[in-house]
Amino acid sequence: MHTIELRFHLPGVLALAEHAAATAHEAYGSHPPTPALIWARMNGTLLMSSGRPRTDAPDVYAEDWGPGTGQELARTPVGGDDFGQTIPLSQPVELTDGRTVTLLEWLREHSQEGTPSRWFVLEVTAERYDFDVR
Known about the structure:
Distance between the termini: 22 Å
Strand order of the largest sheet: 6-4-3-7
Shape: globular
Strand content: 25-35%
Oligomer: single chain
Largest sheet: 4 strands, antiparallel
Number of helices: 3
Helix content: 10-25%
Mean pLDDT: 91
Radius of gyration: 14 Å
């Protein structure tokens, strides 16, 4: 099964998550209004905040998949159609030590000073995606 790893700069992703957690929300497509990251494909692939106003939180493009890469991206498991997928900040993340935390808490833990993680990684196949921090 073909997989692509999309790497997003972790400090920027945490800033988006904090913005989404602290502001009012609008529904995104058919998704209910909830604090979330929005993974989108629009002539490149990026993460956005579900919070409003969006101008307070700059979008974070995947490394090497910014504006103008839509044609190349179409040849990957991400595909060629534009989309937006919400990733709720309340989504549970199971840790190796047995704890379960929310996505927001997990991002905060990995962003603390002294941690080696610098990237939020989406691992994408044609059927699904998973995320990790590296």
